Amino acid sequence: MGPEEFLDQLFGYLYATTVWRFILGLLVVSTARILFSVVRLRVKQAPLWKIPGPPIVSLVTGNYLQMFEFGATKFHDYITEKYGRIVRIRGFFGDTQLFVSDPTACTTILLKEQDIFEQSDWFIEVNRLGLGQGLLATLGGHHRKQRKQLNPVFSAKHMRSMVPLFHRITHELREVLKTQVGGARKELDMVEWLSRLALELIAQGGLGCTFDSLNPHGKENEFRGAIKEFVPTLSSLIMFQAIFTRISKWPPRLLRLAVKFIPMAMLHNAVRVADVLHKHTKAVFDNKKALLQMGEEEFTHQLSEGKDIISVLMKSNDAASEEDRLPEEEIMAQMSTFMFGATDTTSTALSRILYVLAHRQDVQDKLRQELNDAVENFGGEDLGYDELIELPYLDAVCRETLRVFPPLPVVSRIARADTILPFSQPIKTADGMASSVFIPRGTTVMVNIPGINRDPGIWGADAAEWKPERWLAPLPKTVAEARVPGVYSHTLTFLGGGHACIGFKFSQLEIKTVLSHLLRVFRFSPSPTEVVWLFRGFTTPSEKGSTAVEPQMPIVVEMI
Ligand code: HEM
Fold first, then answer.
1. Its domain of life (predicted)?
2. Using only C-alpha atoms, what is the Rg of the chain?
């Protein structure tokens, strides 16, 4: 070996060992820091150990699988009944978390101390990288600034102008269903059709574009596919959240380069989904921007006549002061955010209403009668905004279904600082009665939405029963007294506080418009195939025993 070759090898060796030592050192330091913060948090969480909760089933995963597996809804109901409004749960490696349905505790989490109880870094970062920096990816002042610009776009005044569009799209669905049923009766997978409908309603009503979702022979749209893939793709990465949240803020180019060299198909898939979402929102945005620059007349030539949410937002944003104006990137991010926020939620709510009505023909008949009478009095089948909003039985059926069966049953927050969580009533702990508990920084609290919506202490002994009639009489005094911090009907179905669902009026109108058409033309009855409701983040229907990933809800649809 010559001297040059020797030096080359020596430097190569030194370089390789230095780099590897550096990487190894980094890993050791990071692991030590993670371990140290984990141990410190476990120690500080000691006061929470005294709160009653289910036994731990695994030292590694705690109660995590019971809380989030397909059958989790039953477990949630069981622990709420057994342990009450404040339940201690174990997360990964002995982490202690709370599952909360106490109204005073929920008010602290969602309203009074909403700047302490925030979404986790993981939630914010995956949404930021996947959907962009929209409402689901911002916190504090940044989030408030976005809400200030967006709230007026979701006002009742603007929702009024959406009614014709909702009618038009629902007519389309009705005609497709008539063809599918073939003039008599047929079993259809209604969740599939309601998902397509929800997607088309937000595509046209939110973005002013179409995905041709109601075309039975239409091809899968790439944007639609990416929205559907978003949650499963990210769920597959959840076990790497500690590492992910540490590297996610790297400069985008560096992050992309790093991801390229990590041989993990699910990571590459996540990047692909994010790229597809960005490509499409940018195309829709650029098109709108060009139209806006051409003038008002061109702008109203869009499919939605310029009444869709993003068009209205772009116009009001242009007129806003420099200080309030949102950057273009953030408007694009709202598009993916709305597509994501509006689709599974609405289709799940509509599916549940049809499912319940299929099992309660008496209610279905009564509702149909109310709708037929309303159409006769109104003088046309496309009921106006006020008629749709004010029909009492339609309203009662919607409120009751959303109360008893909230599509999104659990939302999580993480304490960003040490604080005290007060309760509305003292609870029994290992140390005696307690009317509050110390929550150390880093603790996860989960809001148990069905727990509070069906709390017998608030709604009475029949709280768990589905009874639309309860909304036609004065509600028990305990309902108002409980001061549930929700934006809708004393429930947390659409949550409350600064992160409450921005689209709740939009979804009310969608649901009522759809029911006003479908129930007058079709009768829905249960299928012989049993349907079960599974926890997939949302509570969605499935055929009993099926292993399909997608929700399924066979219902017998009959022409009237
Ligand atoms: C029945 C239908 C719906 C239900 C049950 C529902 C429920 C919820 C809930 C519980 C949250 C809070 C999530 C959290 O903070 O972790 C939320 C947030 C949100 N929802 Fe909805 N939603 C529905 C329909 C819609 C629709 C139609 C849209 C859009 C048009 C929408 C857009 C959003 C957005 C953007 C957020 C984030 C708000 C923020 O953080 O400021 N949702 N929704």
1. Eukaryota
2. 26
**Distance in Å, CA 206 to ligand 1 centroid:** 14
Residue whose CB lies within 8 A of the most ligand 1 atoms, among 230, 326, 345, 513, for a mutation test: 345
Tell me the ipTM for this assembly: 0.99
Distance 494 CA to ligand 1 centre (A): 6
From the CB of 444, is ligand 1 less than 6 Å away?
Answer: no
Nearest CA to ligand 1 atom 3: 345
Beta carbon of 502 within 6 Å of any ligand 1 atom:
yes
Q: Which residues 6+ apart lie within 8 Å of 310 measured at CB?
A: 206, 207, 208, 284, 285, 288, 331, 334, 335, 338
Among 22-26, 438-442, 537-541, whose mean pLDDT is lowest? 22-26
Verdict on whether the full-model pTM lies above 0.90: yes
Whether 364 shows a pLDDT value over 80: the answer reads yes
pLDDT exceeds cutoff 90 at 267: no
Q: Measured from the CB, is residue 346 less than 6 Å from ligand 1?
A: yes
Using DSSP bridges, classify how beta strands 96-100 and 444-448 pair: parallel, antiparallel or unpaired. parallel
Q: Encode 108-145 in three state secondary structure.
A: HHHHHCCCCEECCHHHHHHHHHHHCCCHHHCCHHHHHH
Specify whether domain 73-559 bears CATH 1.10.10.10.
Answer: no
pLDDT digits (tens, 9 = 90+) for 495-553: 999 999 999 999 999 999 999 999 999 999 999 999 999 998 899 999 999 988 889 99
